[in-house]
Amino acid sequence: MISTNPVLEFIPVAFNPRYSNHLEGAFVEGNAWQWTTMVPHDVPGLAELMGGQASLGIWLDSLFSASPQIDGDNASMDITGLIGQYAHGNEPGHHVPYLYRYTDKPWKTQEVLDSILYTFYKPTPDGIIGNEDCGQMSSWYILNALGLYQVTVGNPSFSIGHPIVDKAILKVSENGFFTINTLNNTKENKYVSKVLLNGKELENKQISYFSIQAGNELTIYMAAKP
After folding, report:
1. Global pTM?
2. How far apart are CA 92 and CA 104, in angstroms?
3. Which residues lie across from 157 on neighbouring strands?
């Protein structure tokens, strides 16, 4: 019996993590570099798949130091604000600087944030690098300028990043205020050395939403070295 099924010829295609095909390729508004880390609900699982904390750190180093070249005739215009292949101008990557906290070199989070906060945001009409998309780019800046960021949506925990304001008082209820104090805050002191909540040290450098809502006082000490 002769088969009438067509013969399929599989031609191997070289994988290019820089390749983007806007709305028509495997990755929407990005490429393989930028979407690999889109698992904010299970960063430890991502680190395990990559071979552990050190391996995740090496991958992140490669992401931020890779060539910023984007390949493809129909590459997405949303890929902007590049540091290597990290695209700060597109929202799906906004948690990535904090992934260093899950590696053996967590202080590198502050190094990346320092570069973003002082390079990509300027007081000019075109001062936001990327599509504002309902305020995401601005809200990222405000939270990170305060030194806070929620890596996993739905998890009521905020990581301490790289505050650039000396003091902030946030109204969290009708009569309640949450206060942030940043000590030793200079351009040279980009690293967080110690974090206190109402005078008690937070070892994991994270604060819960409920501690913020309760109107407590957060004190962040900065230093010139990790």
Report:
1. 0.90
2. 24
3. 208
- H/E run at residue 218: strand 217-223
* Cα gap 139→165, rounded to integer Å: 15
Closest C-alpha to 207, from 140, 156, 151 = 156
Per-residue pLDDT of the chain (226 residues; tens, 9 = 90+): 454 555 555 555 689 999 999 999 999 999 999 999 999 999 999 999 999 999 999 999 999 999 999 999 999 999 999 999 999 999 889 999 999 999 999 999 999 999 999 999 999 988 898 888 889 999 999 999 999 999 999 999 999 999 999 999 999 999 999 999 999 999 999 999 999 999 999 989 999 999 999 999 999 999 999 9
Residue of 168, 167, 173, 153 whose CA lies nearest to 214: 173
